Amino acid sequence: MSHSLQTIQASNHPIYFNEQGYKALNLHLKENKYSNLFIIVDSNTNEFCAPKFLPYLETDLTIEIIEFENGEINKNIETCVQIWNVLTELGADRKSLVINLGGGVVTDLGGFVASTFKRGVDFINIPTTLLSMVDASVGGKNGVDLGNLKNQIGVFNLPIMVLIDTDYLQTVPQNEMRSGLAEMLKHGLIYDQNYWEQFLDLKAIDYADFDALIYRSVEIKNEIVTIDPTEKNLRKSLNFGHTLGHAIESYFLENENKTTLLHGEAIAVGMILESYIALDKKLISIEQYNQIKTTIKAIYDNIDFEEIDIDPILELLIHDKKNEYGSIQFALIDGIGKIKINQLVENELILSAFKDYKS
């Protein structure tokens, strides 16, 4: 484990790696007069991550742990109401500090709770899954789902700091690691061809070097959101694989006959489908498409789509937050490492992409 990764300066807040994060956190607690400290966890991170985290804390503040049941299904306004009530009962005020210790559900929801409680209290994110380290840790998006519509309610608001400690990954199951890997693959496909090529032979990846791969992924996302914090243009490139991926994820979430997919599993399918669309629009070559499809299919299980699944998935696209003026906009790769945003795609082409995915 290399502890020498440089701190990444995101817009107005630092992202610390490994040991440096705890030093910075304790210094911050010393220098700021907080009234009390609330740690938001889910049932998993309370059990597996809190025992590792708490001994690092050096503070005399009263510490309260607020736990909610884990899972995307609990990332909703009802959970927020419960936490706002608990904060109120426990005497939280504008000078309280919230620390979100968990995966993307915890940091998205905890960041939203902190951003709205008394019009906003300071919060710090400590992502504990690969997905939240390379994705939710950067960019200041906080929010919750509305029914099955992902992240429909939320705010842009930045944490005081982010601590990425890759030791937490030892508690993460293999399928969750693969889920996070999907966002790393995406960062390569949209922004950095050399980075993408490091994943072509996963067996050759030395997990001792994995820290450096995580670091580069965070760096890429940070470069993109620093240029375009509120998703007017370049940041839309991060939606590659997500336009169809989110619709697939939502459909599998709400459909009793389907096994719920992890975020990265849905995004992996989305990236193959949207690469096919890019191929059809002559943005990538057949060799590039085959490389993407083969690489992703080697990592992720094949998802079964039946004829009757496709229409409801297309219906869900209509609610995608990225749509403007009722037309569905895609961010498509333009070669590997570059992107074209606001691409209109007709339904026929989406259907062909599903057909090709199955073949």
Automatic annotation (TrEMBL):
Superkingdom as given in the UniProt entry: Bacteria
Keywords attached to this entry: Cobalt, Lyase, Metal-binding, NAD, Nucleotide-binding, Zinc
Top enzyme category: lyase
One BP annotation, GO: chorismate biosynthetic process
Domain 3-dehydroquinate synthase N-terminal: residue ranges: 66-178
EC number: 4.2.3.4
All residue ranges annotated as the 3-dehydroquinate synthase C-terminal domain in the record: 180-323
GO molecular function, one term: metal ion binding
Entry-linked InterPro entries: Dehydroquinate_synthase, DHQ_synth_AroB, DHQ_synth_fam, DHQS/DOIS_N, DHQS_C
Cofactor: Co(2+); NAD(+); Zn(2+)
One Gene Ontology term, aspect cellular component: cytoplasm
Pfam family, one: DHQ_synthase
Function in brief: Catalyzes the conversion of 3-deoxy-D-arabino-heptulosonate 7-phosphate (DAHP) to dehydroquinate (DHQ).
PANTHER family: 3-DEHYDROQUINATE SYNTHASE
Annotated protein name in UniProt: 3-dehydroquinate synthase
The gene coding this protein: aroB
